[in-house]
Amino acid sequence: MATLSDEQLRALRFLARHPGGCTEATLLKQGFTAVQLSPLVYAGLAKLRAVGRPKLFRVKITMAGQRAIAAGAD
Fold this sequence. Notes:
Layout: H1 6-16, E1 22-23, H2 24-29, H3 34-42, E2 46-51, E3 56-61, H4 63-72
Antiparallel strand pairs: 1-3, 2-3
């Protein structure tokens, strides 16, 4: 992923504050949509994990996402 938008950095920073990841409902409450988050997952900056029954999806920041935050803070 080339340059991150302000919204993508905001999403990564939000995920970084939640080490266990966030559910889609939590992310929606913060104004993030699947369309906004999917490029982060595709680029390896965040990961998607199915948990529980019924299946809930959690989005969690990766180490690459942590590095992207550090680079974006410059």
